[in-house]
Amino acid sequence: MKQERAGNLLRWVECFLVVAEVGHIGRAAETLGMSQPPLSQTIRRLECAVGETLFLRHARGVSLSPAGQAFLPRAQELMAARRRVLALSEDVALLDRSVRMLLPRSVPAAWVGNRLLSPGADFTGARWASAPSSEIVREVRGAPTAVGVVVAPIVTDELVALPVVAVAQDLVTTAVVEKPVSRRTLRRAVGPVLLTAPRTDGPAAHDVLAAELESLGVAARLKEVADPLQLAAEIRVARAAALVPHSTPGVDGIPLEDGVLPLRLRVLHHPDAEPAAREAASLLQTCLSRCGDGER
User: Fold this and answer.
1) What's the farthest any 2 CA atoms get from each other in the chain?
2) Residue limits of the HTH lysR-type domain (predicted)?
3) How far is CA 40 from the centre of its chain?
4) Could you give the domains of the chain?
5) Contact by Cβ (8 Å): 140, 268
6) Are the C-beta atoms of 168 and 293 separated by less than 8 Å?
7) Which of 12, 36, 89, 111 is the most exposed place for a label (fewest CB within 10 A)?
């Protein structure tokens, strides 16, 4: 098709489809709200543009030529694409109303999928993403359709914060220790380096962890790692220790004694949250509570 002849392509194709369906130029013109001569001219322009005769003219009207039969599915595809393009505003409006679920980037995706999201929990239409806890607070503060899970403690300001859930953790370590790792054996089990999420993800939570380790007599250096691939490499290659939620799939961790270094998670939503967001937050809290510190 020559580019200079395709300016009114969509209109030409629309007319082609009506004529193909009706099988008569005059009746098709009535359907389109135009007179017959302009419609005939439009069909001729389309035929000229594609370089083929699309209709066979006969006494009773018109029928598709072999080229017209080949062109028909392409014309239908083009008009379907046009409808999808024009429906963008509807899709955007639907997207704006869907619930955005934000979880800490330090929480392994495998644990979220396998442990947090219980079978039967209906989060249909939700959009999932991960981010630092500090960014999640900012996102939820500005979006009534957003629900966040953050690592506590953290400043939540005017947001609605559901009760903190303490999730038991496993220690990934190369040290040989008895299960579970107790307060007495924790120092040897951790070793010289413990990998943590960057302090900027949640300064208060980072400082609480450091204080808890100190109170337990653990003198390990806290090494901040944000990238999951780097975290895996540091554990395997550098033989550093790390904390992960209990029973994270694919991670060979040693359970910690009850109450030792739990992961404290809290669900947040906007004070003027949309009903769908409030419902999603409540359901997420229920799922999170099932993963609480007492569940082994």
Assistant:
1) 99
2) 8-65
3) 50
4) 3-86 (1.10.10.10), 96-290 (3.40.190.290)
5) yes
6) yes
7) 89
Is 264 within 8 Å of 288 (Cβ atoms)?
no
**Range with top average pLDDT, 93-97, 165-169, 171-175:** 165-169
Cis peptide bond prior to 144, omega within 30° of 0: no
Percent of the chain that is helix, strand, coil (3-state, to 5): 45, 20, 35
Distance CA 205, CA 212 (A): 11
Q: What does each C-alpha distance from 180 to 128, 184, 196, 258, 289 come to in angstroms?
A: 33, 11, 21, 9, 22
Structure tokens at 174: 């190369």
Question: Which stretches of the chain are DSSP H helices?
Answer: 9-22, 25-32, 36-50, 66-86, 88-97, 109-111, 133-141, 186-190, 203-215, 228-236, 275-290
The DSSP output letter for 200 is G
Q: Which amino acid, one-letter code, is at 226?
A: A
Up-side HSE of residue 247: CA atoms within 13 Å toward CB? 12
Is the per-residue pLDDT at 65 higher than 70? yes
Structure pTM?
Answer: 0.68
pLDDT in tens, 115-140: 888 777 788 888 899 999 999 999 99
Residue with tokens 């992960």: 244
Selection from 202, 209, 249 nearest residue 106 by Cα: 202
Question: What are 145's two structure tokens?
Answer: 């359709």
